[in-house]
Amino acid sequence: MEDLTKESFDAIVFDGEGTLSSALPWQHLAQKKGVLLEVNNYLSLLSQGEVDSVELFDKLFKLLSPSLNESLELGRLCAERLVQDAKGLLHLFQSLGKQVFLLTQLPEASSVEFAQALGLAENKVFGIQLFYNSDGTYKDFDRHSLLVQQQGKLRVINHLKKSYKRLVYIGDGVDDLMLLNSVERFVGFGGLLCSETVAKEADFYLRCPTLAPLIYLCLTSSERGKLGNSQQSTLCQAALNEFTHKRITLSQKISV
Question: What is this structure's pTM?
Answer without folding.
Answer: 0.93
